[in-house]
Prior knowledge:
Elements: H1 42-54, H2 58-71, H3 76-88, H4 92-105, H5 110-122, H6 126-139, H7 144-156, H8 160-172, H9 179-190, H10 194-211, H11 220-236, H12 239-251, H13 257-269, H14 273-286, H15 291-303, H16 307-320, H17 325-337, H18 341-354, H19 359-371, H20 375-387, H21 391-400
Helix pairs in contact: 1-2, 1-3, 2-3, 3-4, 3-5, 4-5, 5-6, 6-7, 7-8, 8-9, 9-10, 9-11, 10-11, 11-12, 12-13, 13-14, 14-15, 15-16, 16-17, 17-18, 18-19, 19-20, 20-21
Amino acid sequence: MQSARHAIVLVALVSLAGAARAQSAPAPATAPLAEAAGAPSAASEYNAGVEAIRAQAYAEAARRFTAALELQPAQVDAIVQRAVAYGHLGRLADAEQELTRAIALDPTRVAAFDNRANVRAERGDRAGARADYDAALALDSADASAYFNRAVLRAELHDTAGALTDYTAAIGHGFGGGSAYLNRGALYAARGDAAHALADFDEAVRLEEAATAGGRTAGPRLGVALANRANVRIETGDLAGASADLARAIDGGVHTAQVHFQRARVRNKLGDPRGAIADYGEALRLSPGAPAAYFNRAMLEIQVGDSAAAVADYSKFIELVPSDPDGWISRGAVRGAMGDKAGEIADYDEAIRLVPDRGELYRFRAIGKSSRGDADGAVVDFTRAARLGDTQSQDYLKAVGVKW
Length: 404
């Protein structure tokens, strides 16, 4: 009567980096602009804005770049940097306007195209973003950030082949950190290419370990890389490796319902039902509306002998998806085993109401009726089951000499 449910099926445990495009703003000047003696100059205001950007004081940065532009209106670097500050402040329309102005003043400015593409993507103008990434790469074919960001855009548009090509180009042109490997690995995993996905996740883990004290302190991106690698390892049967990766991911701060759901699956397969129950509990704390977690935890609670908890979890599953007969069937079976015959029959009644053409349900109810001493009712249900093709009921009726 029990049927395992894995309704939460993960290909990648995190989204591709659409919400975290690589920033392509011009790097703050490596040397300050030349200062003029006396009153504040455009150069001094610009340099103060650069320092504010570095300090993530974006309102102050915007103010400083505005002051610089009042003194030198055509300073393209200041226009682009002010647009970056506007972007961080959520002023996306202003940022796009500024970058369009910068491009009009200097149509060879790669950073202006890169940043306008990012802004347009954030505003939902994917066609405009794509045109700007293309323009940036036409000006600089080694622009790793543009390849990365165009890959993100292509993935969002379900152009997997194009996204893979661009992530590969970003990696080839030195895009830093593990993000490109992580995102490319997620695309390979989505295509069912476990070998390439694992290779990319291995490299993402290696790079992020190097950036986080050799993995002794797992940072968020390292945790995400580990969680994704664990997911592929589950699919390839490497449960021990998956378990180790998930433990490190959780230690690194990846506390999502999906990660705990995955570790619960792994722990169950490794023969640790109580550990799996604990992980389903954490998954449900983070996402209380996940019916599959209630259903799967209930099955494990039966395994460890906690029938009352199983009934409670099946009840919650039924509350969330009352149209699914499996919840009623499973709870009915547990109630029957606990001696709650009335509850058992009531649950089978509802399951039959939902799917009246499933012969085995009448057999389940027949057994329940028989255990309550309702022999006539049991025969009626066995007969219905047999007529619907339930072979076990047919065999039973033949054995007791009842025609169906």
